[in-house]
Specification:
about 70 residues; 3 helices; mainly alpha
Amino acid sequence: MGTGDLALVHGEPLLGAIRVCYTIVLHSKSPVNQATSKAMLTQMISIIFRRTETDPVSSSAYRSHYNTKFKYRS
């Protein structure tokens, strides 16, 4: 995989990456590592929200997945 290649990550692996960056921001003693992790978090969250706002297919697929997974009984 080169630098121009695209890798899509979602679900648990994406949450894991976010948790790791967040943990580094909170607990690292290195200001460089904290700043880098904070920038990575900002970029990841920005891309996630941009994709959910601009990609109706993945937004509707997400909604249908979770609407069927968590049906509530009355």
